[in-house]
Amino acid sequence: MAAQARAELSIEITQGQQRALPIAIVPFSPETPAAPVALHQVIADDLQRSGWFEVLDPARLVSRPGPEDAIDFREWRLLNQEALVVGRRAPAADGSHTVAYALFDVTRDERLLGQRYGGVASGELRRLGHHIADQIFERLTGIRGVFNTRIAYVIKSGEQYELQVADADGHNAVTVLRAQEPVLSPTWSADGEYLAYATFDGHQAVIYRQHVASGARKRLVRQPGINGAPAFSPEGGRLALTLSRDGNPEIYVLDIGSGALRRLTHHYAIDTEPAWSPDGRWIYFTSDRGGGPQIYRVATQGGSLSRMTWEGGYNARASVSPDGKQLAFVHGGKGYRIAVLDLESEQMRIVTDGPQNESPSFAPNGRMIIYTTRSGGRDVLATVSLDGDVRQRLVVSDRQVREPSWSPFSNLR
Amino acid sequence: MRVIAGVALLVGVLGLGACGGSGDVRSGGAGVEDRSAGAGAGAGVGSTGGSGTGGVAGQGSFSGHALDDPSSPLSKRRLHFAYDSYEIDSRYQGIAESHGRYLASHPSAAVTLEGHADERGSREYNIALGERRAYAVQQVMLAAGASPRQLTIVSYGEEKPLANCASDDCWWENRRVEIVYTAR
């Protein structure tokens, strides 16, 4: 069941879970007059796209119970369903909505979850649908859902660049920056309020921080040479970045408040693409001090520096999982593919097919990675689950889409 | 006039100025560049008006600025590099030196060296690779007598390709340094 085309992004599933959980999602009553947002559809699309679920074709629904109705579980078992979602959305006098839903375990005749929400504005209905999908996903898989998160990415069209932010399902894409010069490496702050990115002011590389909601932006660095690869620290007050002002690309840490710069690497090789461990103690980075690019890490306090990747001659652009236990990065060899290194076992596995994959970014639940791939001569976005079984591609019709960054969890829970 | 136009057309066909396919630049360019490097060096130095000595190679005289003389290495502003490398190929060493000598004899001239990389692999690492390439060209120009204040470096990595590629011939086009005169 492919999602419909949207204004900017359309999502196609390319591969699914071996054994997806069959779930029926009944349209929320009343079905007429039609709601501004079909909540059951938002939930169904989210769950179907995750690859963990097989949502029942609505044409096969035999009955349409609401949250207060008695459920005939046998009827749903005859349809081979294992879970059932029902709901209701009622308009209030002030134009807001009241929404209620319930989740049932069909095999055990049991109500698992239910919730009622009042005073929901029309403009908030989609987000509520994603929130409900998150609740259902977490209850049935044990994993926190990422349906209510956002992605940032760069679109290139001719010589025009746009930095966009969209819902993780591709809806509500908003352009937050338009530029005539390249925009690179957008990255979210830990609180989801800011994006930092690299761009050029008059043929000089610079780094900006932009407040996503208001669009207000501040140039954080403009040193001679390269200013690139920004990465916010987990606690928010610092930015790791690459500067070549001292003669060659090195990793620095900027104190955002004071503007003070501290240099972390001291080697004539290229050192770039810093990424923080979630506890802030380590910065992983790309260095070619061993001949070709490999992933290294250095203690944020300075000192202890060691190499992390040993397989293959090209490993670059690390992204650290939210639990700090895995690295995703670009692995060269047979084309460029995304690989994941387990830091405890030191086992590396390749999770994409190439031939040109880049810019991996972990979802905040650590279960999926979004990245750029080339398809039909265009850069497009794609996601893969950590075990490589679940894939989806996000396609923009005629423009290059690259450099995705997955937002943190939203603050609403 | 007609003779000069004819020569200019012939020179264009042989791939100088490199707007054509990569095959032309790679195979045809080397030979032509070698021949004119000798003549160009003579034409470039000390001739702000840029005329006359182009006759050494029997190519007629050029009456424009030395930087625009198609038979001079100074008209070549694009140097290409091998994969994952920032070593200047001997083919391009002479071009970089010519520009260095021009800058040395024209203290008010200034150049921005733009470093570029092909699109494969990691974007920010490619920014660093592009800068390395521009630095390598800068070193040659400084050794040839240019002053550091005449040289600015910027790297665009893979962001500004000449061509959208799927093959090694094409990727070679994008692995380059562009010499951009901001003052002559």
General description of the model:
The complex is a heterodimer of chains A (413) and B (184). Chain A has 413 residues and is mainly beta. Chain A is 8% helix and 46% strand. Chain A is built from 3 helices and 30 strands. In chain A, strands 1-29-28-27-26 form a 5-stranded antiparallel beta sheet, with no helix packed on it. In chain A, helix 1 (39-50) crosses helix 3. The radius of gyration of chain A is 23 Å and the shape is elongated. With 184 residues, chain B is α+β, with helices and mostly antiparallel strands. In chain B, 43% of the residues lie in helices and 14% in strands. Chain B contains 5 helices and 4 strands. Chain B has helices at 2-13, 22-44, 90-105, 123-143, 168-174, and strands spanning 78-80, 110-116, 151-157, 176-183. Chain B has a 4-stranded mixed beta sheet with strand order 1-4-2-3. In chain B, helix 2 runs parallel beside helix 3 (90-105) and helix 3 (90-105) crosses helix 4 (123-143). The longest helix of chain B has 23 residues, at 22-44. Chain B is globular. The chains are: A mainly beta (413), B alpha+beta (184).
Shape estimate of chain B: globular
Q: What Rg of chain A, in angstroms, do the CA atoms define? A: 23 Å
Supply Rg of chain B: 16 Å
Q: What is the makeup of the main sheet of chain A? A: 5 strands, antiparallel
Count of DSSP-assigned helices of chain B: 5
Biggest beta-sheet profile of chain B: 4 strands, mixed
Helicity of chain B, in percent? 40-55%
Structural class of chain B: alpha+beta
Run of helices and strands of chain B: HHEHEHEHE
Distance between the termini of chain B: 26 Å
Strand order of the largest sheet of chain B: 1-4-2-3
Structural class of chain A: mainly beta
Helix proportion range of chain A: under 10%
Number of strands of chain B: 4
Task: Give the beta-strand count of chain A.
Answer: 30
Chain-averaged pLDDT of chain A: 90
